[in-house]
Specification:
The structure holds 2 protein chains of 2 kinds. Chain A is mainly beta. Chain A is built from 1 helix and 9 strands; from the N terminus they run ββββββαβββ. The longest helix of chain A is centred in the C-terminal third of the chain and has 9 residues. By secondary structure, chain B is mainly alpha-helical. Helices cover 35% and strands 6% of the residues of chain B. In chain B, the strands form 3 sheets. Chain B has a two-stranded parallel ribbon. A two-stranded antiparallel sheet of chain B has the order 2-3. Chain B has a two-stranded antiparallel sheet with strand order 4-5. Chains A and B meet through β5 and β6 of A and α6 of B.
Chain lengths: 147, 268
Amino acid sequence: MVDRFVSAPLELPDPEAAFARADLTFYDVDHSGSSFEARVFVDNADATVETGRDDPSYAGSFTVFGHGGCFGDEGHCDVPSGPEDPFDLSPPHQLTPQVKLVVITDALHRALAAGRREATVTVVAQTPGARPNDVLAFSTVRLLTYK
Amino acid sequence: MSPTVPAAPAAAPARLRHRRSARRLTAGQAADLRSAVAAAQAIRDDRGYQHHAGIHGLPLPMSCTHGSPLFLPWHRAYLFFFEKALQHRVAGVTLPWWDWTHDHAEGIPRLYARARVDGKANPLRASPIQRSGREPGGTDHTVRDPDGPGAPPLPTRQQLDDVLALGDFLDFSNQLEDIHNGVHVWVGGTMADIATAAYDPLFWAHHAMIDRVWRLWQLRHPHAGPPASLLRRALPPFPATVADVLDSNALGYDYAAATAAAPGPGHG
């Protein structure tokens, strides 16, 4: 778990190719601990928790409603891995990682207008109150545009 | 010949109950809600407040669904059965909704924020948390820390309009759930953790708002809805499927900003 993450540069779409909406999709987001807001900045590898929402690189945020910890015995919070049993009607494990989405249409337009052809994605976690901020974990961030 | 008054239809359509804005309840409606919640909080068995609050989080199992296309249907069923439990205490009472896109200066509506009413503790301000519902070392009653350090701002009307404009159910559900998450974090305290959130009486007003937004979206997009593959999915522990909860009118309720009623002349 980290409190801040800077991605490798993502190739941006052709500036001549129009798009109506752009999303950043975050896969396998952990939600087992504290709730937090993940603030997303495009093309600003220096963004921190102090960087404001009025910064031009601010693209939006997603919020995790956290499980709050593990309350079972040992193994209770281990998410099963491997192939699913097609005959098992049980609901998914409560801590199955989630997919989160941030609509970044305006921020992507700004980056393209500034001549960027690739850009990093910086994600900064902010928990409420005095809780630790090292709650951020996900497997992949993907940029998608739609016509 | 004296005019005749038609008899009441033998099978009059069932009367819908209306959930109203938490900021627009009449004094009587607010008193009924407090009475119903206080009465439910006093019951320790499976008709009581603790039982219903515990379905969402602790004690295990946590049955709620988040980060899933079942988020909206499951919570609609959850509110339905909790509202029924309140109506068994005070007939006709309904869950108010908290419109968190308005009155940001006030924050939490006074109905839920004031500490005392008529010389007694306000049951909508806080609730006990049963021992099995507490996090390790956690508090024995609900607490809030609204707009505390690090909390995201409350949603704006524009954010809500943007979500209501989405035409795809899964996209709508996903983005509305994120708005929902932010409000939980904004309230803070025990509302900010899945394990304890539903013990806070404000939880139900927050989720009535989420359910209302879904209802508004359904009215705006009458031909959109969950994928067919979801319709027969069960919503445990409730005896309902996704299809069962799509139509709030079929569940006997709808949403109104405010209501008032007076008796008619009768049929005698």
